[in-house]
Amino acid sequence: MIKDVEIRQATAEDIKTFYPDGSPRTCYAWVALYRGLPVCIAGLIIQRTGAIIFSDMLPHGAPKRTAWLVIRELYARIVALGIPFYTAIECDNERSRRLFKHLGMVYLRTVSGEEVYTCPR
């Protein structure tokens, strides 16, 4: 349990909070609320070739330590689904690169200016 945080399956309204036009694809997601306000969403976009993980944080987010604990918890929930997945970041995004490596994701290749990572099995 993370102090002042509630994590639950995201609803369509939660998704609209982060993506006002709605999700462009079918997804399975969780939302994290910090003191009752949505601060982070993460989940999987399901495709025939596998799944792509995604996440977003709102600017009025939680304190740094709390945010890190939320990210780890959401990542653990995604991994627990047992679905192979990938994600990509822009090559110049050092912060995300450090985060993915810290979570244990593995770099695969660079495609169209983005680095592709996966979760080792």
How would you portray this structure in words?
This protein is an alpha+beta fold. The chain has two domains: 1-83, no CATH class; 86-121, no CATH class. 28% of the residues lie in helices and 40% in strands. The chain contains three helices and seven strands. The chain has helices spanning 12-18, 64-80, 94-103; strands at residues 5-9, 27-34, 37-47, 50-57, 85-90, 106-111, 114-118. The chain has a seven-stranded mixed beta sheet, with helices on both faces.
Q: How is the topology of this model organized?
A:
Layout: E1 5-9, H1 12-18, E2 27-34, E3 37-47, E4 50-57, H2 64-80, E5 85-90, H3 94-103, E6 106-111, E7 114-118
Parallel strand pairs: 4-5
Antiparallel strand pairs: 1-2, 2-3, 3-4, 5-7, 6-7
